[in-house]
Design brief:
16% strand, globular, single chain, eight-stranded mixed β-sheet, binds 2-acetamido-2-deoxy-beta-D-glucopyranose, Rossmann fold, 15 helices
Length: 401
Amino acid sequence: MGFKALCLGLFCALCASYIYITIPGNIEEYWKVIALFTVAKTCTFMDMCFENLGIMKHGDLISMIFSLDYTQPLSDENVTVTDTIFVDTPVRLYLPKRKSEIRRPAVIYIHGGGFCFGSFRQKAYDSLNRWTANKLNAVVVGLDYRLAPQHHFPAQFEDSFTAVKFFLQDKILRKYGVDPTRICVSGDSSGGNLAAAVTQQVQIDLEIKHKIKLQALIYPVLQIIDSCLPSHQENEHGIILTKDLGIKLVSSYITTDETVTQAMRRNQHMPLESRHLFKFVNWSTLLPKKYRKNHVYTEPVLGRHNYSLPALMDIRASPLLANDSQLQNLPSTYILTCQYDCVRDDGLMYVTRLQNVGVQVTHDHIENGFHGALLFMVSPPYLRLGLRIRDMYISWLDKNL
Ligand SMILES: *[C@@H]1O[C@H](CO)[C@@H](O)[C@H](O)[C@H]1NC(C)=O
Ligand SMILES: *[C@@H]1O[C@H](CO)[C@@H](O)[C@H](O)[C@H]1NC(C)=O
Ligand SMILES: *[C@@H]1O[C@H](CO)[C@@H](O)[C@H](O)[C@H]1NC(C)=O
Ligand SMILES: *[C@@H]1O[C@H](CO)[C@@H](O)[C@H](O)[C@H]1NC(C)=O
């Protein structure tokens, strides 16, 4: 019975994915992307089936699939790779073997995965971090953090912040031969959220002597208070990240209460006393006209549910909620956005807000890009878009670090 239901479920998932194919015509390597899209949809669907059949918990199947992709710390001719622990946070270190007269720059990379999945052990991140160490002759630290739904906000933030703070100590930087004036914090997607939040806190933490020189945010998630931005509407059925999936992941970051997920889908999750925060994410003023198109701004519905969830109003969960004087402290920033991305407007609004307070921002926008593509830069599928994102990011680092 279970098996038949599973087969039927699989069959329906495949049909549904073909019916709902909304892949824009200008996407490169169209058939590869369709294959990825179908696999992603099928996995999410099977995960749901397994949950309904009581075989596994929600997300377990996807975590299992992710872990099949994990790599061991393998050194090569150029880079020594080791796994270790910073305080309680597992990290993978990439130390260039090349002799260097001067201390090296460093990059701390925080992986994506919707706060629920992923690790620096994934093939794509291992390859990116190794590449960074090699190309820039830099010390690279890939860091992991506790994941939802077992762990909620602020665990993910705390783990990342604690590891970064540990690394920034004099004795640790000296141990790895790192130049304290040349350190970048980077991340993609939810890792971009953590990188942005960590950078904000490092810059104001009086206990931290060495500050961050650069931050690089690749299609970052930067706020959880408005789920009705133009990019949410245009990419509701996005290629890897649908609006539903995005909201499910973000809500499991902050709570186990399923009703929050539903309220977020209707954009009715914020309390009355959050009204003053909406000016920080008001896309009708912060989004360039090109992206606003004909969308009409509607005020969010506040106070429909009075969730007592401090995370909803916390800048460590939504770095876009920092006020202008907090943003002024931020280092030179790289932001990469993709057109076909539910969270595109988070990145675009952060570009505007940072530029408004005089922070130096380099912004790359990929017209035919989609969320999560970096994960597919390794084989298979060896997606050109993923490699392009890597190269844009590395070339900025190379010029600025
Ligand atoms: C080591 O570095 C050289 C020179 O940059 C490069 O050609 C080679 O591919 C690198 N090896 C690995 C395993 O990345
Ligand atoms: C957002 O901006 C529009 C003007 O473009 C303004 O009418 C509206 O009141 C603003 N809303 C908030 C919550 O800041
Ligand atoms: C939420 O709180 C506000 C003011 O404290 C109140 O007016 C509103 O009725 C409350 N909503 C619910 C659903 O309890
Ligand atoms: C910005 O936020 C900080 C921290 O909450 C606060 O101390 C400061 O007064 C705020 N500045 C402005 C201009 O609102």
